[in-house]
């Protein structure tokens, strides 16, 4: 029965100490009713007159760019914002006037077609967003009827109003921002997953007010419920909420702890009741929704410059032609008859010799319209079509599909396809991007003894650095044979647990000398956490919902080592553990107890006779504290503080008599860090009863405060409690590298791409991960910048903030200058391949990124082969990305998987999101999403290169064909004394870009491959063509334009001369404009399509169809159009069937023009390929000559590399060879010296 479930009792108000507490009225709540705090919500009365007068936004959410009413005007505005489209609109309007050299319909129809195509594309994309909106708005939720019946009915989300009472079930999303009233737990606690908001997968705890949870237990309790909420106005802050609840005579403060945000999900809680506070676009998640930054590729920006250049050429040609025309017109006075056919004596203003200046002005306008064919009208829409099709190929690439998570690659925007082929620097997150973010418990140090025999990837890498693969085998043997124990590797793989040591597993820890310490260590792992167990009813297997992968690994490790946390009951959490005395498994119940019962010693009564452990407080982990603690009462009535945290925080909190194992533990922690493991220190202490009572009192007061210094008060109180600890040991978990990461980095490095790692991990871990993935190698000189000097530490301890900042700034600047000087000196005499790596921590980075020093930092970093920024905050990641992008002027790509990477992804030219385990925030903010880092290799080296090469060739060809066509118009007009007479029929002019030359260029942009994917992998330095923009340089663009000019000259003059004295019928009629124009147009169609044939590197049946089909389409059109009545076809009436096709000169002229127009390009490409080949042309020769498997020839081509490789496994092998060579040289020298001494 709805609302009839027995409510679960779980007293967490004392456990989640930082959040779940009552608030008291202080500074923040005094603002209620003032500016920014004027919202009033009438709970359970959405239809009241007072509520309706406020007219709050509905819950309908729209993410579309257009509405049905705004689509046409808004999309038209978007289209005509492009300067080329606006230009064609102006010329189209002018075509309606007598100034036009062609008919208005023939000018406006192609423009309408192009604009319509773009608008259809916009509409299709927006319809996809509309469908998502419909799906979200039509979700259903249970809503209270608002009457006295107490019945909840299902309604669609879009129907919700401010003040409605809703009931949300387990695993459902919250439909609006809700005020938590009660839940299935007695303390009104619920668990919320905020992955859609902040990308975090860990669960958050929310708790309603006692005043509402005590009276609202089931559906029927809402019959008479009425309350008023006064709170802040809608805003984007996810982490604050200020308001008051007026319930009967009570006035209760509200905080963010009572706010359930839209699009977060209810987890591990059967149901909650909530009052709608913010709806629709007033909700915090929508308030945070900002349009992603507008990104345009460098090629597109350069294309705009070409368009402007073409405009300048058009206006210059029109200006020159109008001057000549004015002069010629003025000279028609006085009875001259050179242009008698214009009838200047009877002419209107266009040819009136008496008004030659005005005639020249009118001619200028006419010429601007006539020369508009220099600008490719279909360029933008063709590129958009091509990019969409390229994105489809990327999305459907089976080699970038990750079967384990069913995640294909997803190009979320098609605007940046060609930019993928121009990346100079990759800035990468580490955890979850280079690594799996799936932690495995692999080693630990307990009571000064190291346990765990696993070999990490970093250790294998270190062994390779020390002496080759043989050492790895020796390392495994040594670890396993230690103490004559053979590790048991049988059994299925356990997620989160990769620990092998028979001294500890299978209950053998009870036989160890320090078994009591081991027991306490494992209890800390099993108890000191906030994980939530979930038991599979079918199998009984227990899984855990934890705040982080590290914490999940600890709980799993405790379970596998005999301390299983298996449930949260109504009274607490239950743990099965091995008894130290008997070695048998027993159950212990760690009870939650309210602080108000603390003084009732001896009066407590529990249902179980087992030894009782009462958890009193959980002091949660955060990035500032870097530790987490729980306070428990053990079976003997003792109060214990169990704690775990970072080594730099925990060691300084140890008591004098608690440092027994410190020296050995420090050694192990350093070893674990060197092995690339993440470490935490575990410790405990006994707490005095009076001390705890005092702590509890002060702590409750601090966390109930809503003043600005609330957090600092809490930190101060917990800091006092978490001291004088007794060291137990340390944990070490491994975040493994993703499959293929070293190979991917090696290929990217061979391609000349610089790789920076921006991570929040500490320096030692980051360095060793750098070695494991071949970003670093042994011979690299490491330039390390940090502030771990004794002088800086002394200043920090003294608390002199200003002095410390100044000294830190000076130290960072000095270290950067020293590093730059080291690089400037260049490689040593003994090693010309010397490379440098820059490693800088977050503190130093703060000063390095200041305006006065960031250029020094950039100069130093760009001079290094590898850059690793440790302990970086999300803001620092974004600032570093911005600095690289703006400072180098090169294309940057950022790749990450978490919410903390969003700023970096949006700041980079290209943002790539990894769809990993940290939620979808990075993916939703990215331009392209992939499932694994290794797919970046194919995305850049194959798809990136292809897209760059295709788009570059496509744009160059577009301008080539339009210049060819446009120059023939100009030459003909010059031939007719600039009389603004077009060489071609109106429809010939209009359809050239739309039908007779557009499809081949689209096929080029979609299907062409200068080299195959196999050769892209084999010769990764081919990628540098895009980085250096060799295929879209001004030299290449001007070259294609010049080729168009040559083709136009050949077409015009050969056609003019060949047709000048030809007879076209038995009556002796010579060629007129219609015949000359038809012949020239035929030659243009043939030449531009044959030029495409010469330009294509990879033919498919699609290219054959569109190229030869375009030529055939011209002849078909000419026959059909010529058969239409002369009133429509005008001078094209039967021109082909009756004049052109019967004349042998027409076909011969076409053949001669094709030969002479294409010979210059053919000769140029032959000479270039033979004597000045580009890198892709050399690879084409390898493929053509069948020498792709000839090692010597391939290596010769590799030697033409644009950049030496200093990063990656290839560079490491090369360095190893050089070391070996130097070793043998030195050995030979020593041998010779010894021989001489013997003689």
Could you list some keywords that capture this structure?
alpha+beta, ten-stranded mixed beta sheet, 1239 residues, disordered N terminus
Strand-helix topology:
Layout: E1 39-43, H1 49-54, H2 71-80, H3 83-94, H4 104-137, E2 140-144, E3 152-156, E4 165-169, E5 177-183, E6 189-193, H5 195-198, E7 203-207, H6 210-213, E8 227-231, E9 243-247, E10 250-254, E11 259-260, E12 265-267, E13 271-278, H7 284-287, H8 298-330, H9 356-370, H10 379-395, E14 410-411, E15 423-428, E16 435-446, E17 449-451, H11 457-467, H12 469-481, H13 515-527, E18 532-535, E19 542-545, H14 549-560, E20 563-568, E21 572-578, E22 585-592, E23 612-619, E24 627-633, E25 639-645, H15 647-650, H16 662-674, E26 677-687, H17 689-704, H18 710-721, E27 726-737, H19 741-750, E28 754-758, H20 763-772, E29 781-785, H21 790-798, H22 801-824, E30 836-840, H23 842-848, H24 854-862, E31 866-869, H25 874-888, E32 891-896, H26 902-907, E33 910-914, H27 921-924, E34 928-930, H28 935-975, H29 986-996, H30 998-1007, H31 1013-1018, H32 1024-1027, H33 1034-1059, H34 1073-1095, H35 1101-1123, H36 1126-1129, H37 1135-1140, H38 1144-1171, H39 1175-1185, H40 1191-1198, H41 1209-1238
Parallel strand pairs: 15-28, 15-32, 22-23, 28-31, 29-30, 30-31, 32-33, 33-34
Antiparallel strand pairs: 1-8, 2-3, 2-4, 4-13, 5-11, 5-13, 6-7, 6-12, 8-9, 9-10, 14-34, 16-17, 16-27, 18-19, 20-21, 21-22, 23-24, 24-25, 25-26, 26-27
Helix pairs in contact: 2-4, 3-4, 4-29, 8-9, 8-28, 10-28, 10-30, 11-12, 11-20, 13-14, 17-18, 19-28, 22-23, 22-24, 28-30, 28-33, 28-34, 30-35, 33-34, 33-38, 34-35, 34-38
């Amino acid at each position: 029965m709805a609302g009839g479930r027995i409510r679960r009792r779980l007293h967490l108000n004392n456990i989640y100490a930082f959040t779940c507490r009552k608030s008291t009225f202080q500074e923040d709540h005094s603002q209620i009713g003032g500016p920014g705090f004027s919202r009033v919500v009438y709970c359970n009365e959405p239809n009241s007159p007072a509520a309706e007068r406020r007219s709050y936004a509905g819950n309908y959410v729209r993410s579309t760019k257009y509405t049905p009413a705004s689509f046409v005007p808004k999309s038209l505005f978007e289209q005509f914002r492009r300067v080329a489209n606006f230009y064609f609109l102006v010329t189209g309007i002018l075509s309606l006037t007598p100034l036009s050299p062609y008919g208005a319909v023939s000018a406006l129809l192609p423009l309408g077609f192009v604009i319509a195509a773009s608008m259809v594309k916009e509409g299709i994309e927006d319809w996809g967003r509309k469908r998502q909106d419909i799906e979200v708005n039509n979700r259903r939720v249970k809503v209270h009827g608002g009457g006295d019946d107490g019945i909840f009915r299902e309604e669609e989300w879009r129907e919700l109003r401010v003040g409605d009472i809703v009931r949300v079930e387990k695993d459902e999303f919250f439909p609006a921002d809700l005020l938590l009233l009660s839940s299935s737990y007695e303390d009104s606690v619920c668990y919320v997953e905020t992955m859609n908001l902040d990308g975090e997968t860990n669960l958050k705890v929310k708790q309603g007010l006692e005043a509402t949870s005590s009276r609202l237990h089931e559906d029927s309790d809402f019959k008479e419920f009425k309350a008023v909420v006064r709170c802040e106005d809608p805003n984007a802050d996810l982490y604050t909420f200020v308001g008051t609840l007026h319930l009967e005579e009570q006035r209760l403060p509200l905080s963010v702890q009572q706010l359930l945000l839209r699009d977060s999900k209810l987890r591990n809680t059967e149901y909650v009741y909530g009052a709608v506070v913010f709806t629709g676009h007033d909700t915090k998640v929508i308030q945070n929704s900002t349009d992603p930054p507008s990104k345009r590729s460098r090629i597109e920006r350069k294309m705009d410059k070409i368009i402007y250049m073409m405009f300048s050429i058009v206006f210059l040609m029109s200006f020159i032609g109008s001057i000549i025309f004015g002069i010629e017109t003025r000279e028609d006075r006085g009875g001259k008859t050179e242009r008698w056919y214009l009838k200047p004596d009877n002419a209107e203003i266009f040819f009136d010799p008496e008004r030659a200046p005005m005639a020249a002005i009118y001619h200028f306008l006419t010429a601007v319209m006539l020369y508009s064919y220099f600008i490719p009208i279909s360029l933008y829409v063709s590129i958009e079509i091509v990019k969409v099709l390229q994105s489809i190929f990327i999305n459907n690439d089976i080699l970038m599909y990750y079967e384990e998570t069913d995640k294909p690659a997803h190009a979320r925007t098609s605007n940046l396809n060609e930019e993928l082929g121009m990346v100079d620097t990759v800035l990468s997150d580490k955890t979850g991007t280079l690594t799996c973010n799936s932690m495995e418990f692999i080693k630990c140090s307990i009571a000064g003894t190291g346990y765990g025999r696993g070999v990490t990837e970093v250790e294998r890498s270190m062994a390779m650095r020390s002496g080759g693969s043989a050492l790895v085998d020796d390392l495994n043997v040594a670890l396993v044979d230690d103490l004559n124990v053979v590790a048991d590797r049988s059994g299925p793989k356990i997620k989160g647990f990769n620990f092998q040591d028979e001294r500890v597993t299978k209950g053998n820890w009870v036989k160890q000398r320090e078994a009591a310490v081991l027991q306490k260590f494992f209890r800390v792992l099993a108890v000191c956490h906030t994980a939530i167990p979930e038991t599979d009813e079918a199998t009984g297997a227990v899984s855990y919902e934890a705040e982080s992968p590290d914490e999940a690994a600890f709980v799993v490790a405790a379970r596998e080592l005999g301390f299983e946390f298996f449930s949260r009951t109504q009274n607490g959490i239950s743990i099965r553990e091995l008894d130290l005395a008997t070695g048998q498994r027993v159950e212990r119940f760690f009870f939650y107890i309210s602080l108000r019962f603390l003084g009732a010693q001896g009066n407590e009564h529990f249902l179980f006779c087992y030894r009782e452990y009462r958890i009193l407080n959980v002091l949660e982990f955060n990035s500032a504290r870097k530790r987490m603690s729980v306070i428990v009462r053990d079976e003997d009535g003792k109060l214990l503080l169990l704690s775990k945290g970072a080594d730099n925080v925990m060691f300084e909190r140890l008591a004098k008599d608690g440092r027994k194992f410190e020296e050995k533990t420090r050694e192990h922690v350093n070893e674990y860090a060197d092995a690339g493991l993440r470490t935490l220190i575990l410790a405990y202490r006994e707490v005095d009863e009076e001390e705890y009572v005092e702590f509890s009192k002060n702590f409750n007061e601090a966390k109930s405060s809503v003043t600005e210094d609330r957090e600092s008060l809490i930190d101060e109180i917990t800091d006092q409690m978490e001291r004088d600890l007794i060291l137990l040991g340390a944990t070490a978990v491994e975040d493994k590298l993703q499959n293929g990461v070293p190979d991917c980095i090696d290929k990217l490095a061979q391609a000349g791409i610089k790789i920076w790692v921006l991570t929040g991990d500490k320096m030692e871990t980051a360095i060793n991960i750098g070695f494991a993935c071949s970003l670093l190698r042994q011979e690299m000189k490491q330039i390390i910048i940090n502030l771990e000097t004794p002088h800086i530490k002394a200043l920090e301890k003294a608390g002199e903030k200003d002095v410390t900042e100044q000294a830190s700034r000076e130290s960072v600047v000095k270290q950067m200058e020293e590093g730059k000087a080291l690089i400037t000196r260049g490689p040593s005499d003994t090693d010309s391949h010397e490379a440098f790596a820059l490693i800088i921590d977050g503190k130093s980075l703060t000063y390095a990124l200041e305006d006065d020093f960031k250029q020094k930092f950039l100069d130093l970093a760009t001079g290094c082969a590898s850059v690793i920024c440790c302990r970086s905050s999300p803001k620092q990641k974004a600032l570093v990305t911005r600095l690289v992008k703006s400072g180098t002027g090169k294309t940057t790509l950022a790749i990450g998987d978490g919410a903390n990477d969003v700023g970096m992804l949006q700041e980079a030219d290209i943002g790539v999101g990894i769809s990993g385990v940290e939620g979808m925030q990075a993916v939703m903010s990215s331009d392209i999403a992939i499932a694994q880092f290794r797919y970046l290799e194919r995305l850049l080296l194959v798809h990136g290169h292809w897209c760059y090469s295709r788009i570059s060739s496509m744009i160059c060809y577009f301008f080539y064909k339009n210049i060819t066509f446009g120059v023939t118009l100009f030459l003909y007009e010059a031939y007719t004394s600039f009389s603004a007479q077009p060489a071609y029929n109106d429809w010939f002019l209009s359809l050239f870009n739309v039908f007779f030359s557009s499809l081949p260029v689209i096929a080029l942009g979609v299907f062409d491959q200068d080299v195959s994917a196999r050769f892209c992998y084999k010769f990764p330095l081919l990628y540098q063509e895009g980085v250096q923009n060799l295929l879209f340089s001004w030299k290449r663009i001007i070259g294609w334009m010049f080729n168009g000019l040559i083709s136009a000259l050949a077409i015009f003059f050969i056609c003019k001369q060949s047709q000048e004295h030809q007879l076209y019928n038995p009556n002796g009629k010579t060629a007129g404009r219609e015949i000359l124009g038809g012949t020239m147009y035929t030659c243009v169609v043939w030449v531009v399509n044959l030029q495409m044939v010469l330009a294509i590197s990879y033919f498919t049946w699609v290219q054959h169809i569109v190229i030869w089909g375009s030529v055939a389409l011209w002849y078909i059109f000419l026959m059909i159009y010529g058969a239409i009545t002369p009133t429509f076809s005008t001078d094209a009436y039967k021109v082909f069937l009756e004049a052109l096709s019967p004349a042998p000169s027409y076909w011969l002229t076409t053949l001669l023009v094709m030969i002479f127009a294409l010979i210059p390009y053919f000769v140029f490409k032959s000479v270039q390929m033979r004597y000045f080949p580009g890198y892709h042309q050399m690879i084409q020769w390898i493929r053509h000559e069948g020498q792709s498997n000839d090692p010597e020839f391939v290596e010769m081509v590799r030697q033409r590399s644009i950049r030496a490789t200093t990063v990656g496994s290839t560079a490491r092998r090369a360095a190893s060879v050089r070391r070996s060579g130097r070793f043998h040289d030195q050995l030979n020298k020593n041998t010779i010296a010894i021989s001489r001494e013997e003689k």
